[in-house]
Specification:
With 87 residues, the chain is mainly α. It has one helix at 2-86.
Length: 87
């Protein structure tokens, strides 16, 4: 009987070992996923920063363009006034 009990215990130990190994593998997978998530977060933060910088630059360009249009209008008015004096 002792041999059968040892054989049964060996089977149980083997099964427990397989589950313990599976748990370790899943935990390693979770560590890899966590590292990947951290890298994704860093990328998202950098993209957000780049977006804010680009948006600020876009706003500067739009403002500059609008100021140029206003200056062109003022120049046109000045040309019109100067034209009256040159006649």
């Amino acid at each position: 009987m002792a041999k059968l009990e040892q054989k049964a215990q060996k089977l149980v130990d083997g099964a427990v070992s397989v589950f313990a190994d599976a748990i370790l593998q899943v935990e390693k997978a979770n560590e890899i996923l966590k590292e990947s998530i951290d890298a994704d977060i860093k990328q998202l933060d950098q993209i957000e920063l780049d977006y804010r910088k680009l948006n600020a630059r876009k706003n500067e360009i739009v403002e500059d363009k609008n100021n140029k249009y206003l200056q062109m209008e003022a120049n046109s008015e000045l040309i019109e006034k100067l034209s009256h004096f040159s006649k």
